[in-house]
């Protein structure tokens, strides 16, 4: 019975430490103050994603506009397009005026389509809104991650994993945890492989990253777990316990403060340049 009340960590030490390091990278490079003051835990419900449209493109547009708002990049010039009709090639660099994120960003509706960030979407994901939300958030995190002053932990090999953590940091952790794995059993009509998303973090890793968000933001467990798949709720609570036991690692994250990234251009206007992909 000795050790009966010991809690088994949800992840091995290497994985959990990497997730702490990835959060340190996000907090250092992407406005820790905005994270603590304004970033919301985005919920997968009609309150956060209201409205309906009569086409796949219309629904994708409604979802993406909300994702941009919650990611605090509503001023970014973007253009969504069905991935089946937009083979991607390297495109021009896109100008984003004002603060990279937050209310100091400057929207410019006069930007033409050729100078907007192209955001591809899978129309099949309209039937899997959590997967579509996570996919959109990951694309935005990819662009945002380009502005970091240093590479994420693990370097280029871990870029897709780090940008998923960055998307969780932006508030979309529930969607990443809930859509990281899709059951492929049952009747054939119950599973649509085209509606799933490509996941880089495992279910447990995504849940741990979400738990880091919850602990840092002081969100009670039940406000998170009620929106999770049932089999992930215990993993989330286990992750919270493990994170809270890592006092020094938590103190390191909480000590990070970083002002928003603002670059003054020669013309006197703040701007940022992101590499975009364009359709041929």
What does this structure look like?
The chain has 280 residues and is an alpha+beta fold. The model is unreliable at 1-5, 182-195 and 263-269 (pLDDT under 50). A three-stranded antiparallel β-sheet has the order 3-2-5, with no helix packed on it. The longest helix is centred in the middle third of the chain and has 21 residues, at 159-179. The chain has one domain (13-279). The protein has helices at 13-29, 32-37, 56-70, 129-145, 159-179, 203-217, 221-225, 230-245, 247-254; strands at 78-82, 88-98, 105-106, 117-121, 271-279.
- Taken as a percent bin, the fraction of beta residues is 5-15%
Helical fraction: 40-55%
Order of helices and strands: HHHEEEEHHHHHHE
User: What is the count of DSSP helices, taking H or I runs of 4+ residues?
Assistant: 9
Structural class: alpha+beta
Query: Whole-number radius of gyration?
Result: 19 Å
Mean pLDDT: 86
Shape by Cα distribution:
globular
Oligomer: single chain
Unreliable stretches (pLDDT < 50, length at least 5) are 1-5, 182-195, 263-269
**Main sheet summary:** 3 strands, antiparallel
Total DSSP E strands: 5
Strand line-up in the sheet with most strands: 3-2-5
**How many individual domains?**
1
Distance between the termini: 66 Å
